[in-house]
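Model it.
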Amino acid sequence: MGTTRVAEVRAFRYANGVGTPLDHCQGLPERTYEPGDVLLHEGTPGSLFVLAEGAVEILKGEFRINVVDEPGSIFGEVSVLLGIPPMATVRALERSRVFVADDGLEFLASRTDLALAVARLLARRLNSVTRYLVDLKKQFEDERSHLGIVDEVLETLVHEQDSGEDVTPGSDREPDPNADPG
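Modeled.
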């Protein structure tokens, strides 16, 4: 379970020389969640969490993206840094204990070595996604169907800068991901 996050936490621990996020949680309140309890709701502002023990699942809608059980895993960092609601739901699979930073931005700002480590972690994720998108672009660059749009999507993502505009993701399958389904 949690192989993606395990690798990230280990990389975090060894590459950054700052220990794990758990080493920076002294003084933060702890919460315990039972199986089925939701830590973060997709689309609803929340806190920054650091897993101390247990296992959680990451969901986009009802689709499971990952299972994470590595102590030191962080949840809510993207929403905290971008000032947006969480892009996924985090739900406990078993009894889980977490440290909670209700003001996640202040938590990271007051721990600059941890903030740099989180930035490096996010940069690694972005690098992986970019490599994947480049591979897709190569596979579908001559495609005349809807798959040919991969090229346009990649170009937009690669050249995206902070324009100050809010961008709402969507697709043919889900034109408005924030719409109420029923």
